Amino acid sequence: MTVQLDVQAVFKPLWSPARYKGAFGGRGSGKSHDRATAMVIECLSVPGTRAVCIREIQRTLKESSKRLIEDKIQALGVGHLFTIQHDCIKTPGGGIITFQGMQDASAESIKSLEGFRIAWCEEAQVLSARSLMLLRPTIRMKDSEIWFTWNARRKSDPVDKLLRGADMPTGAVVVMANWRDNKLFPAVLETERTDCERLDPDQYGHIWEGDYASL
Prior knowledge:
By secondary structure, the chain is of the alpha/beta class. An eight-stranded mixed sheet has the order 3-4-5-2-6-7-1-8, with helices on one face.
């Protein structure tokens, strides 16, 4: 079936195949919405896709990207092709989207992801070096991809060293996105943004413009 998409210009480089894809920046950029939409489209385009949505700490599914992906499934009008279950989403062709916290994962437990084609790491600024070390060689299928979305915190954070350092991995595509790149930026966030710029200028750059934290 044909799905109408309106991809924000800043994210278009992430819609071509690449082993590593990253989107970082400030609040309200739409980066998580873009990747949630991309997840649905990938599962439609490649039936049988197995994908995992990862956070460093995920104690409950409320802390995962599950609800956002469910919303995108409905917004795209493809709800009849997916089965929403309590702890996962069944996708066309016998595929699945699961949700995983990395902090408590072991080398053995992470092996269950070896047959997965896509891993999306949300809030990647808090991913540990250990988590990256476990995840990267595990997602190894042909044409597999690892996605990262994050609000930059420090240059020393593992995801920044990986995707914004001098030695980025081969095939990495990384974009910076901020509020001004989001044509759907809501009025309520515009009020929050201008209040922050006026009342907390020291933190404004980090919160809204994708700068590293000053504290």
